[in-house]
Amino acid sequence: MDKFLKIFKTIMKNKVILFIFSRYGTYFIHFINSLFIAVYLGPYYLGVWGFITLVTSYMNHLSFGVSDSVTAIISVKKDKDFYVQKVIGTALTMLIGLSVIAIILFSINAIFELDLGSKFNFSTYAPVVVLIGILGYFNTLFNHIFRVYGRLFEIAFSQTVFPILMLLAIVFFKNKDLLWAMVFANLLAFLLAFLMYVIKMPIKIRPIFIFDLFKTIQIKGWHLFVYNTSFYFIVISTRSFVSGFYSVEEFGYFTFAFSLANVMLLLLQSMAYLIYPKMLNRFAAAKNEQNAELLKKLRDAYVTTSHLLIHVAIIIFPLFLLLFPQYSPASEAFKLIALSVLLYTNSFGYSGLLIAKGFEKKIGKLSFTALVINLIAALVLIKVFEVPFTLVVLATMLSYFFYVFMLGRMGRKMLDLDTSFTKVIKDIYPLKLLIPYVFSLVLILFSVPDNYFIISLALFLILNLKVLLNLKSVVKSIIVNPDVINI
Known about the structure:
It contains 19 helices and no strands. It has helices spanning 2-12, 15-61, 66-74, 81-111, 126-148, 152-172, 175-200, 211-245, 248-263, 266-285, 288-323, 331-345, 350-356, 360-384, 394-414, 421-428, 431-445, 453-463, 465-480.
C-alpha cells in the first residue's frame, strides 16, 4: 500500500505524466464526441461538418511555416530573451498580414459568388470559419512558444476547452442546430485559448517588423512550410477528392472513419509533441553515433506502440458498427485510413533529425513530390478505375510509403549509414512490423470477415514481444523521473 501511495505521489508531481493524462482525458472526450456527433448529425450533416473542418485545415496549414520556423529558431535561442522577443514580434506582424489576405480571399468568394463548397452550403458558415482560421494562426504560434518554454498547463487548457464545449453542444442541440452549435463552440474555444495565451505569455511580445528577421523566418519557414504543408495536404487533398467527387453522405462516412482512425494515435502524438523541441536541440548538438543510438531508442518505442494501437483498433471497430449501424459503409474506409495513418509513424525521428541539421529544403522537396504522387494516384483511382470512396485512400498509402522510405534513406545518408534498398527497408519497415501490416492490408482488400484480423494482432505480438516488454522500463522511467522526457 505504501509503495502504491509513493508511486501515486510521484505521478501527481510529474508534469509530463499529468499532461499526458490530461491529453488522454481530452482525447476520450473527443472520441465520445465523435460518436455522438455521428449519431446526432447523421451522414449528411456530418459531411457538411467534415467540409467545414476541411476548410479550417487548409487555413491552418497555409500559414507559410511561420510558427514552425519560430519554433526551430527559438528552440535553440530561448536563453536570449531580447532576440526571441524580436523574432516573435516579427512573426506576429507576418500573421496579421496573412489574416488580412485570408479576409480578402473569403470576401472575394462571397462578392463574386464563387462555387466554393456550394453543395455543402458553405457560404452560410464562411464568416465564422474565417474567424476561426485567423485565431488558429495566432494560437498555433502561441502554442509553439509555450511548448518551447515548457508551459504545459496552458497548452492542455487550449487543447481541452474545444472538446468540452463540443460536448456541451451535443447535450443541448441536435441535427442542423447541432451543426451551428459546433461551429460556434469551435469559435469560442479558439477565442478563449487566444485570450489565455496572451495573458499568460512567458515573454513580453508585441507586433514589430524587422526585415532581416522577416527574411530569416520566411526563408527557414518557407522550406518548413513546403515540407509541412505538402505533407499534411496529402491527407487533406484525399479528403478534398472524396468531398468533390462523391456524395455528401459518402463524405460523411469518410469523415466518420477518418475521425476515429486519427483518435487512436492521438495519445502517442502527445508524447511526440512534448519531446519535439528538445529532440531538435539534442539532434542539432549531438554527433552521428549518438543520434543513431537515440533514433533507435525513440523509434522502437514510438513506432512499435503505434502499430499495436492500430491493430487493436481494427479488431474493436466492428463493435462501434453494432452501436451505429448506419455507418457500416465506413468499415472498409476506417481500416484503410488507419493503416495509411500508421504508415507515416514509421518515419518518426528522421524528420526531426533532418530539420535539426538544416535539411528543410530537401525534405520540403520530398514531401511536395509525395503530394504530387498522391494527387495523381487519387485522380487515376477515381477517374480511370472509378473506385468507391473507401478505396481513394490507397493513393495516400502509396504516397506515404514513398515519403517514409525516401526520408529514411535521406536520414541514414546524413548519419553515414548504409543507404542500400535492403538496409533502408529493414530500418524503416522492419519485417516484424511489415508482415502483420501487409497481412491486414490483404485481408481488407479481399473483404475477409472481421474476426480474421485477430491473426494480424497475434502475428504482431509474437514478432514484437521483446520490444513490447522493454517498453515497461521506458514507462517506469517517465513516471519516476519526468526529466527523462528531456532526452
